[in-house]
Structure formats: C-alpha cells, structure tokens
Predict the structure.
Amino acid sequence: MGNEVSGEVRDLIEAALKGHEADYVELRLEEGEATRLIYRGRELEDLGRTTFRGGNVRAMVKGGWGFTTFNQVEDLRARVALAVRQAHLVGREESLLAQVEPVVDVVEPYLVKDPASVPLSRKKEMLDSYNDIIMGTPGVQTSQVIYRDLRRRVTFATNEGAYIEQGKVDVAARFTAIARKDGDVQQASLSTGRLGDFSFLEGLREEIQDVARRAVNLLTAASVRAGEYPVVLEPILAGVFAHEAFGHLSEADHIYENERLRELMALGRRFGGAHLNITDGAAPPGLRGSYKYDDEGVPASKTYLVREGVLVGRLHSRETAAKMAEQPTGNARAINYRHEPIVRMTNTSIEPGQATLEDLLSGIKEGVYAKDWYGGTTSMEMFTFSSGEACMIRAGRLAEPLRGVVLTGNLFTTLQNVDAIGNDLRWSEGGGCGKGGQSPLPVSSGSPHIRISRCVVGGR
C-alpha cells in the first residue's frame, strides 16, 4: 500500500469496472498542462500553454483487445462497456497476461525546480537571450529553438484491484544553429532535458555559444575519406546508438510478431565480448525515462539486455511477457490517454568499463572520433547513423576536425567489434523516442566512450 488515495474518485472508478464480461479491464484518467515556445530565426513562431483532460479504457476478451478514448469523464461505466463490446468482437484465443501483484499507491512527481514556478515571461526572456546568442554569431544564417514542459497526472485502475495515481513533470529543449557560406549549409545542435527540473536551462550561455561556433566551423571542416576505420564514439552518440540500433530490437512486441527477429534475438546468443553490458530500466531516480510504475501498473525495474556479451533479456508488456513465457519488465508505456500502452524503452545504457579516453585512442594509427547525434535509420540488424561532427584520430591523438560522418554496418558484427569501453558514463537527456505514432516519448540514453575496432565510415 502507498499513500492515501482520493476515496470518491476511486469509488467511481471501481464501480465502473465491476460486473463486465471481460477477462481484463483497465481504466486510465489523465489531466495535465503543457507549455511550448518555438523560434525560427529571429521570429517567435509559436508560444502557448494548453491544458488537457481525458481518459481511456482497454479491455481484453479471449485474447482480443477493445480500446476507447474520451475527453468527457462522465459515465465511466458506459465507456468501459464500449471497450468490452469491442473486445468481444475480435477475441478468438486465450487471454494471456503475465501475473503482477495489484498495487494501490500515490506517486507524487519528482521535482527539483518546478517549471510551473517560472513565469512564462521569464521563460521567453531566457530563450530570447539564447536565440540572440545563436543569431548574433557571424556566419550563422538562422536558428531553431524549441522548448517544452509537460505536467501529467494519471489515475490508473484495473478490475484486478490495482489503483495508482502517478504524477510526472518533464522539461526539454533543443537549440540548433544553421550556418551558410557560398551555398554550403551546416548545422549543430544541443538537445537537452530533465525530469522535474527547470534549473538546467538557466546556465547554458556557454553551451549555446559553442553550438553556434561549431555550426560555423563545420563550413571549413573537411569530409572524411570513405572507408573502414577504427572508430571511437563519444558517450552521447554511443548511447543513442545503443537505443536506436539495439534497444528497439529488444522490444518484445517486435520480436514476438517477427519470425526472423526471433531468430536473430534468441536468448543466449553471444553479441560481444565479456566487457559489453547493455541495460534498460525506469528505476534510476531523476532520469527522463524514469517512473515508479509503467502504464500497466507494473513496478519499474532494471533489465539486462546483454550481460557479459550474451543476450539475456528483452523488454516486455504484460501480454508479451505471458506469450513468451518471460517476466514482465515494466516497459508498457503510452504517450498520453489517446493511445494504448505499447512496449517502449525507458533509460537505455551501455554500462561503463575501465578504460580512459586516452586508452581508447592509443594504438589507433588512423581512425575516426565521432560525436553528437544527427540522424539515422535501422532495418532489422542493419543500421546507418550520422554524427553531428567528427575528427580524425592520428597516432593515438585527436587530429583535424571533420564534418559529420555516416556509420554503416551490421549491428551484431559491430557489437562484436566493440573491443574497449570507457569509464566515463554520461546520460543524454534530450529528444524523445518515436514508435507506433507515439512521439516524442521521454527517454534517456547513456554510455561511456566506446571503441569499435572496424566500422564502415562515409561522409554525409
């Protein structure tokens, strides 16, 4: 049992859930508010504050799901009945959900400095000053600045007896400088965010100036000569690589539905050396992907995906865990009440090793140091990722700057080629994850520096 819950609301919800012919029913109510500011160049393109309120019902009958969403929270019993009727229309199999202990709890949001305590005028004043820094840098043609804060409170209940009230406050921002000279265009960005803390935005002047300078410097940087090189990835890019290339392959809904992926992601398969450990979990406090319970009421946990180089786990909802005869991991997430929970990552990371950056660079006669995330795509085990910037490694030292590079290869071969891992774990708290039309979902990705002994590298 947790904190005291509001009795009247709970009574209404529990009454709405009773007496339906369904194997499982859950009801979710959500309310919140969001603030956004968006700049393009010197223009404030969008400024607004919105509030929202609504809910959804999900019901399972004979393995089939019914799902309905609504904005008016009156007559909850009728909402439940509609979802149950839908489930009866499609259910043809056995209902399978991993068993979890029903929880009753109230979880207040993690807060350091509440963005609600900062007036909108102060937020605009601060972002104005950061945008002025970018636009005032010689060589910068234009900018894009995006700020968002979001406060949600979700009430979740099931016909199994779970009842959870859970709050969350998320803050995120992205600053992009775009430089141009003689028809050549280059850009640099800073994506950042925090869980329940506005204060990280209050001291970014140097970082913003660095973004603008990097964009301008890229105009005169050389492009890499395409080929196969030893590559060192800095922590932000390495963490995003773990998230995009490996994390999505570990989401059990993908695996269960795809025979080829089930073969590729067979538990017990060796993916790398004994120094390689990859985890995901919402339990660490204070990260953007953290929470106490997922959107099915399953407690947060830490899941080893790769332990000592061997695939040992994957990410589950209650349904995928039951269908694959594994344990639920607390990874069912919905971006808001308009969507049903699906399997999503939380805080995904490569665990640190023992090496220093100097150790990783030493012994590389000619290689590439790649940093910052620009973009990329994955197709099953094949990936293509672009860095924001890079530099050559010569005789064990960082050398001349490069424009961003493109890294291409087979994920499993590349993981086998990760031959050393740094001791300097850092978390990337910017951006958000997209899947199934639900974006941007707050997540974090983390890694130390990693060294890949061989990787195909090309210029962007």
Observations:
- The chain has a mean pLDDT of 95.
- The first helix runs from residue 7 to 17.
- Residues 159 and 455 are 52 Å apart (CA to CA).
